[in-house]
Amino acid sequence: MVRVYRKRAAIEDIIRELKGGFAFGKTDSSSFFANKARMWISVIASNLMRLMNSIALDDQQQSWTINTFRDRLLRIGGRVSLSTPAR
After folding, report:
1. Which of 81, 57, 40 is nearest to 66 (CA)?
2. d(CA 19, CA 39)
3. pLDDT tens for residues 54-86?
4. pTM score, two decimals?
5. Segment (H or E) for 64
6. What is the chain's percent helix, strand, coil content, to nearest 5?
7. Contact 46, 22 (CB under 8 A)
8. DSSP 3-state of 31
9. Can you state the angle between helices 2-22 and 32-56, rounded to 10 degrees?
């Protein structure tokens, strides 16, 4: 019984990550197929992120969510470029 609930908790974490980090639950279009394509792109992006986590990041970084990853690694370039003086 414990194994069943652990699997369920893991799935719920994945769904939360998809909704929060990849806009999985967002349906902007009135077209079913456009919304379906958006959801598939979210799933593919999530899977690529999980693959990169397992290959390229160390043990501490593998527990990062997509939002932590964006904050710590991807926004560094924006901060560096904003700190340079304008000419």
Report:
1. 57
2. 10
3. 887 777 777 777 777 777 776 666 556 555 565
4. 0.61
5. none
6. 75, 0, 25
7. yes
8. coil
9. 110
